[in-house]
Automatic annotation (TrEMBL):
Predominant location category: membrane
Residue numbers spanned by region Disordered: 231-253
This protein's UniProt keywords: ATP-binding, Cell membrane, Membrane, Nucleotide-binding, Transport
Pfam families per UniProt: ABC_tran (PF00005), oligo_HPY (PF08352)
The ABC transporter domain, residue ranges: 1-232
PANTHER family: DIPEPTIDE TRANSPORT ATP-BINDING PROTEIN DPPD, OLIGOPEPTIDE TRANSPORT ATP-BINDING PROTEIN APPD
GO molecular function, one term: ATP binding
Subcellular location: Cell membrane
Protein name listed in UniProt: Peptide ABC transporter ATP-binding protein
Keyword Transport included in the entry's annotation: yes
Organism: Streptomyces leeuwenhoekii
InterPro entries given in the database record: AAA+_ATPase, ABC_Ni/Peptide_Import, ABC_transporter-like_ATP-bd, ABC_transporter-like_CS, Oligopep_ABC_C, P-loop_NTPase
Membrane protein topology class: Peripheral membrane protein
């Protein structure tokens, strides 16, 4: 995907398997949201794209949206209409894919709200989004995204707008609903702990590309891309003070358009050597995953040595 000739997501290729949870992680600006939206065929105005997204072999994503693939966005208000009761919106979503009576659709809407833990769902179904709390709204959006039992749910930082306690609740509800309908989940987050707890596989993105892609447990236990190792080494320790920056990774990601010929991470990478500055590494299989790094074999274990 590019804007005015500047690539913001590049050379990315991955699959999402039935029923799995794929975490997409990386710093702000890595291209996570654009990738998530591309999966749904939702391309921002002004973006030029190349490449293909296939959903069980079909490239007609617009036709599948809301039916076999759905979105839980960062901001629930953007997903809900302010002028219709929440239950009516869910019922309309049901009727957009199933030929059921209004009454049946309304009953399904209430059941869906009940499943995501909205108290007194029959009454709440008649309320408007602004009458819901932030956590309730996000749960209603999860109900909306799962009510038609899609194959894939894409959640783009679904808990950003919430406080710590609500975040946990909403992630739990999302995991439960995903499991109940048997959907795969693509979970965009900048939080490696969320990946650790929820994802089967993880795609680590840096500067619009894949740095590392593989089983979440293995990647987090023994990262092979220096960028993943640096992200992990930067995680706040439970007993330490909160951190705003990534102490193990000085500097910040390059601006799109400011990329040189070499690896985009080389200027921040303690392992960078000659080829890293001249040639961008392609993802290669290593240790049960794909890693885009010339020095992948030299990433120390344990990662503490990386600090
Ligand atoms: N509509 C747009 N026009 C131009 N550039 C854009 C547009 N949307 C995103 N970008 C740029 O594309 C890059 C990737 O954006 P994206 O939102 O996918 O990042 P992200 O990894 O999701 O970050 P965040 O965690 O901050 O949401 C960023 O550098 C961003 O500035």
């Amino acid at each position: 995907m590019s804007f005015d000739g500047v690539d913001v997501v590049r050379g990315l290729s991955f699959d999402v398997r039935p029923g799995e949870v794929l975490g997409i992680v990386g710093e702000s600006g890595a291209g996570k949201s654009l990738t998530a939206r591309a999966l749904l065929g939702m391309v921002p105005r002004g973006a030029a794209t190349s490449g293909t997204v296939l959903l069980r072999g079909s490239a007609d994503l617009a036709a599948e949206r809301g039916r076999r693939i759905s979105l839980v966005p960062q901001d629930a208000l953007s997903a809900l209409s302010p002028v219709h009761p929440v239950g009516d919106q869910l019922a309309a979503a049901v009727r957009s894919v199933r030929r059921v009576s209004r009454r049946e659709a309304a009953a399904r809407a209430v059941a869906a709200l009940d499943r995501v833990g909205i108290p007194d769902a029959a009454r709440r179904a008649r309320a408007y989004p602004h009458e819901y709390s932030g956590g309730m709204r996000q749960r209603a959006v999860i109900a909306m995204a799962t009510v038609n039992e899609p194959d894939v749910v894409v959640a783009d930082e679904p808990t950003t707008a919430l406080d710590e306690e609500r975040r946990e609740q909403v992630l739990r509800v999302l995991a439960e609903q995903r499991e109940a309908v048997g959907a795969a989940l693509v979970l965009v987050t900048h939080d490696l702990d969320v990946v650790r707890r929820h994802a089967d596989r993880v795609l680590v993105m840096y500067a619009g590309r894949a740095a590392e892609l593989g089983p979440a447990g293995q990647v987090l236990a023994r990262p092979r891309a220096p960028y993943t190792a640096g992200l992990l080494a930067s995680l706040p320790r439970p007993d330490g003070p909160p951190r705003r920056r990534l102490p193990a990774l000085p500097g910040s990601p390059p601006a799109p358009g400011a990329l040189g010929a070499g690896c985009a991470f080389a200027p921040r990478c303690p392992l960078a050597a000659d080829p890293c500055r001249t040639r961008e590494p392609e993802p290669q299989p290593l240790d049960g995953r794909l890693v885009a790094c010339h020095r992948a074999a030299d990433v120390p274990d344990p990662i503490r040595e990386f600090l």
